[in-house]
Structures are given as structure tokens and as C-alpha cells.
From TrEMBL:
SUPFAM superfamilies: Metallo-dependent phosphatases. InterPro entries: Metallo-depent_PP-like, PhoD-like_MPP, PhoD-like_sf, Phospholipid_Metab_Enz. It comes from Streptomyces haneummycinicus. Signal peptide: none annotated. Residues 2-340 form the PhoD-like phosphatase metallophosphatase domain. This is PhoD-like phosphatase metallophosphatase domain-containing protein. It holds the Pfam family PhoD.
Amino acid sequence: MVSCQRYDQGYYTAYRHLADEDLDVVFHLGDYLYEYAVNNVAGTRAYPAGTLPDLFNRETVTLEDYRLRYALYKSDPDLLAAHAAHPFVVTWDDHETENNYSGDIPENSVPPEEFLLRRAAAYRAYWENMPLRRPQLPDGPDLKLHRRLHWGRLAQFDVLDTRQYRSDQAYGDGWQYPGPESEDPSRTLTGDAQERWLINGWHRSDAVWNVVPQQVTFSQRYDTTTPPSKVSMDSWDGYPASRERVLAGAQAAGVDNLMILTGDVHVHYGFDVKRDFSDPGSRTVGTEIVTSSITSGGNGSAKPANWNTLTAANPHMRFYNGLRGYATVSLGRELARTDFKTVSHVTTQGAPLTTAASFVTEAGEPGLKPA
């Protein structure tokens, strides 16, 4: 699992290590590129002045802009090595188009028709540069990205798109207190059609593991131990009715081994997924593995400043680490093993790889246990 690889915030050292792993598939969970301008020294990479032409020093808006940005990212030898070594299954988040957009609603106040032209350009460039099939060729600003993959009877992978069909974020797109707007039962993160597709697929599944690669944090995250607490309105916390429908659908389908794979937040998290997050004693119904970024956010730290608060406020959080890296998951018929892997720095090259923590999840016993 990989995500969030802002080019100008560091070197792709983690990809060099990933290229040497013995893997069957890499799931890229969003933010393959960033739309922000890249200056002529490539930010913290600090190339010799003038190395990059000025055509990269602007935000991506047109089809040419997005195509050039993919060309820049794919010029990196460590990213190329990872692609050469492993097949990738990809899904996008926001930055492949624009930060924190929701459906056809842009981050900033531009006319909807103008934003949809930008979205069409971004989606076309994504399809051209990612390992997608011909039937997924976009139709203007629309591209059906969600899809279902099978690994025999061991695993069913339901790859989601939580960006294209979502309702607009409530109370803005940052950390806010929940309220009537965010708790409106009609709000959706997946769109109605994709939600039905997901749940119907679970009813037909005979896989040991039902795995959901997707973009934004599914599990509840409170930012204080003293209620009320703010939550991220851009994540599933900002769409609690949508999350409840998905969890109810998994329960109705009899899904025993639910595993959610997530990117976006530039940290490693390990969560026990609760049937009712408001009740710490609620039944654990799945696991969520959140991978850190490849470079986004710079070097990071093993113990971020809010580590004590978040781990105390969220007892279902089993692991939290803020260094860059990736996570590997090994699926077997009896158990799944997760290894959270980190590099000590990305602003200079050559960082070694460390396994920061390892957990197992036993089939039929959801939740994370130290390996």
C-alpha cells in the first residue's frame, strides 16, 4: 500500500526499497501527483537552479499541465523501479485533480462548468498515465474508477472512488465539530450507485478476506479526550450516515473478515473498526490499515506532537507513526499480517528501511494484535 508522493517534498527512497520487496501487487491509494507548482529546484530536492523549466512552476489546470506533471513524476528512477518490479492497482484521491474537491464542487469559487473542464483534463491524463483498461476511458469529466478484483477465493478487492460522487464537505473541509449538516442521513461519500455496488458485491462474495482499498480515513478520529471533539470533514467522520450504511451492509452480508486499506493522511495508523464507534465496547467488525505518505509532509516523525492525545481519544487506534513509508499486508487463509515500514528521512537520499511495527489479524477474529 502506497499513497501521497508529492515530488517537491522529498525523494522516493521508499519506492527504491519497495522495488526490492517480494510482492504480488501494489495498491496506490491516491495522490499520485500534486497539482501545486514545482519550482525550478524541485522544492526540498534542491536541484541545481534552473534544472526544471518554468512550465512546471504553475498549478495544473489544462490537459497539457497534467500530462507534463505525470512526465515529471515518472522521470524519478525509484518510482520507475517500483513500477517495473510490481503491478499497480490504482485509485485517485483529490490532488490528481485539485485539493479537497467534492464531486463537481471545486475547492475555490470558480464556476462549476470551468471546474468540470479541469476535472475532464485531470481524469483524461490520469487514464493515459495509469494502468487502467480501455473501458475506463473517461467521458468528459466522468470516469468509472471503482472496480472489483478477485484473488481466487482468498480475497475480494473492492476498489472505491470516494472523491467523484461525494456530497460537499460539511462546515468546510477541515477539522470541525459535527452538527446537523454533517449528520444529515442523505449525505454520501461514495454516491448511491457505488454504495449499492459495494454492498451487493459483499452479498455475493465467497472470499476469506473482503478488502476495500480506498482513500480517506474510515475509522473515527477524535482530536481531544474531552468531548465535544472535532473530526475531519474530508474523511468518513464527515459522512457518518454513509459509514453507517456501509457497516450495516457488511453486517447484513455476513462479512467476517473486513479489511479497509487507506491513504491520504501522511501517517501510519492501525485501527480496529467498531460497529459503533461511539461505544468503545462495541463489537470489532474489521481492521483498517492506513499507510503513510511516500514523501508528502516532508520527513515527519515517529511520534507526532498529537500522538498522546489521539491515542488516548481513540482507544480503537492500535498504532500511530508519522514517518514516511508504506505498509505491506500478507493474506493467508488463517491470518493476515501487516507490516508498517518507514524511512527516517526523505529530504535527502539514502534512508534505510525499518519495520516500525507488525500486527496480525486472525480470520474470524477481526482486529489487530501485535505480531
